[in-house]
Design goal:
three-stranded antiparallel sheet; 9 helices; FAD/NAD-bd_sf; alpha/beta
């Protein structure tokens, strides 16, 4: 949306094609998610994002970005998936599930939330293994294992414990990730100290069955009951889609080939914006800094 607004401000005509609803990734966040960034840093298009508290919640963001889309009169095609982007002499032909569109330029800003990192262990594909956490209520009284030690895992652990789930957390690190929100961590640490949450550092899940998880903790193996497992181990861009478009990807870092000043990829006229520019390092680009990519692109197109 930010890229479209910046381009429109430069006199360019834009169309946003979204395979889900407006700001689909944010819609799929946990119901009670609180953002790390302030509302000021999440604002786009010179439209103020005013909230009662400094850090907005998911619902605040949904209302805000819908409002921006309306105020800016953005041309957004929702629930329409892009299948391919073909380069031709005039520019590009964008092929979707509903039709084809001609465009001089294309900006790919597909994010990473649709592509969870998965476990390479037996049982990882069982139906009670989840990569997204919505809310805790359904898990009251159940044995729940959380895999991971960063923000999504910590947030889920707190909410599940407060809802009456029996929570076991498994993290391969020796301590909590330094990226964990500092105003959230004390609550989780308190749950661990009071043995409401069973925390296992330097541990890895090695097998999942229908009702248990086998854990390896520094060579010692033991099982815990698990009615549900949340593998909150991160997400990654859709590398296959970018390669399909001709964008070169570094195998080691997952970073696409692009000009950092213009955001143009190795395919002339094809740009990227947002977190996909970070490759595997998803923690380096957020809404608050990725939103400026649109300005870089718009300035390039109007030179």
């Amino acid at each position: 949306m930010s890229a479209a607004i910046e381009c429109e401000n430069k006199g360019l005509t834009t169309m946003i094609i979204e395979k889900g609803n407006v700001v689909n990734s944010i819609y799929n966040y946990p119901t009670h998610q609180t953002f790390f960034s302030s509302s000021l840093k999440l604002s786009i298009g010179d439209v103020p994002f005013i909230t009662a508290k400094e850090r907005p919640k998911r619902l605040d963001a949904l209302v805000y970005y819908r409002t921006v889309a309306q105020l800016k009169n953005l041309n957004i095609k929702t629930f329409e998936e892009v299948l391919d982007v073909e380069k031709n002499e005039e520019g590009f032909c964008v092929i979707t599930t509903k039709g084809e569109y001609k465009s001089t330029y294309v900006i790919v800003a597909t994010g990473y939330y649709d592509n969870p990192n998965t476990l390479d262990v037996p049982g990882a594909d069982l139906p009670h293994v989840h990569h997204y956490f919505k809310e805790a209520h359904p898990y009251y009284g159940l044995d729940v294992v959380i895999i991971g030690g960063k923000n999504s895992a910590i947030d889920a652990g707190i909410e599940l414990a407060q809802a009456g789930a029996n929570v076991t957390a498994v993290y391969r690190g020796a301590d909590y990730s330094p990226s964990v929100k500092p105003w959230v961590l004390p609550s989780f640490e308190s749950l661990v100290r009071h043995e409401v949450v069973q925390m296992h550092f330097e541990s890895e899940v090695v097998e999942i069955t229908e009702n248990e998880v086998l854990i390896d903790k520094k060579g010692e193996r033991f099982s815990v009951k698990a009615d549900a497992i949340f593998a909150m181990i991160g997400y990654h861009p859709d590398f296959d889609f970018m390669r399909k478009l001709g964008i070169e990807i570094d195998d080691a870092t997952g970073c696409p080939t692009f000009d950092e000043e213009t955001m143009e990829t190795n395919v002339p006229g094809l740009f990227i914006a947002g977190v996909i520019a970070a490759g595997n390092d998803a923690n380096s680009i957020f809404i608050e800094n990725g939103k400026f990519h649109g300005c870089q692109i718009a300035n390039t197109l109007k030179k």
